[in-house]
């Protein structure tokens, strides 16, 4: 394979990849880090060629690595073999994946979203936990949703922790972002139901009439949906809380809603 071997943590590529743990570096470069050969191959299959492929000795003889290397080199990227210590530093884990790769971030403009291309879409307002967002992206992909729209001040969907939680689904669904005013204006053109989720709603999530394509709107982990967003929905629904817990975890509630709406 046409690759070079790097053993120093001061190597420029290693430093640039490690810096992608920082949001500012991701924003400035427009790049992000994905870990694991399976996920890298899924990304390639979804049309995303890696900019950098970094692999350790455990992956050197893996048959799928050739595919990842070929896609990277064909796209003008860089491939380096590194030792385990570098992989540990890059992933900040004792048990790192044997392959990590760097990809370009993709955000779909709201105007490019075709609502009818999927039965269901998910909008997340001010989601703060990268694990919650990654889990929602994975669930949206699994249920055949078109994508996830980030409304207001949300966590970065391309954080290392968030991408890990997507298990590769970050490459499979559309990701868009919007300010609250942009979302409210765009929502006016939505052809199906816009469904808010509220603990104070009086409509049970199973009894509402969902017109497809449906757009499910989820609130922030602490405050829930702000009134101006709840008021902009066609219907607000509640998943029954039968025990002592007063709310569900955001990603669990989103999963229940996605499968309720899509059937
Ligand atoms: N204290 C917050 C509140 O009053 O809304 C709790 C927010 S909850 C942890 C985060 C989000 O998950 C909510 O904004 C809503 O979108 C969704 N959610 C959680 N439990 C829900 C339920 N039982 N019914 C509908 N949505 C729920």
CATH topology of the largest domain: Alpha/beta knot
Largest sheet descriptor: 7 strands, parallel
**Secondary-structure-derived class:** alpha/beta
Please trace the helix and strand order, writing H or E for each element: EHHEHEHEHEEHEHEHEEEHEH
Strand content: 15-25%
Q: Residue share in helices?
A: 25-40%
The shape is: elongated
CATH class of the largest domain: Alpha Beta
**CATH superfamily label of the largest domain:** SPOUT methyltransferase, trefoil knot domain
Mean pLDDT: 97
Number of helices: 10
Bound molecules: S-adenosylmethionine
How many structural domains are formed by the residues?
2
CATH architecture of the largest domain: 3-Layer(aba) Sandwich
Count of individual beta strands: 12
What order do the strands of the largest sheet run in, or round the barrel if closed?
8-7-6-11-9-12-10
How far apart the termini lie comes to: 47 Å
Description:
This protein is of the alpha/beta class. It has two domains: 4-104, Ribosomal protein L30/S12 (60s Ribosomal Protein L30, Chain: A, 2-Layer Sandwich); 110-262, Alpha/beta knot. Helices cover 34% and strands 21% of the residues. It has helices at residues 12-19, 23-29, 37-45, 63-74, 84-91, 130-142, 160-166, 180-187, 227-231, 250-262; strands at residues 4-6, 31-35, 52-55, 78-82, 99-104, 120-125, 147-151, 174-178, 194-197, 203-204, 214-218, 235-238. Strands 8-7-6-11-9-12-10 form a seven-stranded parallel beta sheet. α3 packs across α4, α6 packs parallel to α7 (160-166) and α6 packs parallel to α10 (250-262). It is elongated, with a radius of gyration of 20 Å. Bound molecules: S-adenosylmethionine. The site of S-adenosylmethionine has 14 residues, from α10. Keywords: Methyltransferase, Transferase.
């Amino acid at each position: 394979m046409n690759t070079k071997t790097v053993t120093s943590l001061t190597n420029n590529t290693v430093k640039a990849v490690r810096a992608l743990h920082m949001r500012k570096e991701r924003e400035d470069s427009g790049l992000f880090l994905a870990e694991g050969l399976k996920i890298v191959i899924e990304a390639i299959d979804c049309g995303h060629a890696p900019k950098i492929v970094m692999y350790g000795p455990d992956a050197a003889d893996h048959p799928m690595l050739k595919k990842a290397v070929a896609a990277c080199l064909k796209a003008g990227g860089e491939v380096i073999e590194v030792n385990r210590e570098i992989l540990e530093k890059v992933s900040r884990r004792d048990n790192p994946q044997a392959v990590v790769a760097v990809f370009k971030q993709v955000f779909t403009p709201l105007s490019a979203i075709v609502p009818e291309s999927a039965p269901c879409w998910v909008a997340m307002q001010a989601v703060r936990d990268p694990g919650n967002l990654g889990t929602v992206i994975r669930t949206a992909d699994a249920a055949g949703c078109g994508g996830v729209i980030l409304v207001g001040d949300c966590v970065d969907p391309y954080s290392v922790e968030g991408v890990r939680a997507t298990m590769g689904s970050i490459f499979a669904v559309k990701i868009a972002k919007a300010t609250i005013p942009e979302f409210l204006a765009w929502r006016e053109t939505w052809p199906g139901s816009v469904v808010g989720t509220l603990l104070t709603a009086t409509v049970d999530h199973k009894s509402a009439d969902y017109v497809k394509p449906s757009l499910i709107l989820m609130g922030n982990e602490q405050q829930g949906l702000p009134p101006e967003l709840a008021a902009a929905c066609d219907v607000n629904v509640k998943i029954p809380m039968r025990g002592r817990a007063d709310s569900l975890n955001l990603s669990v509630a989103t999963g229940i809603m996605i499968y309720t709406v899509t059937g």
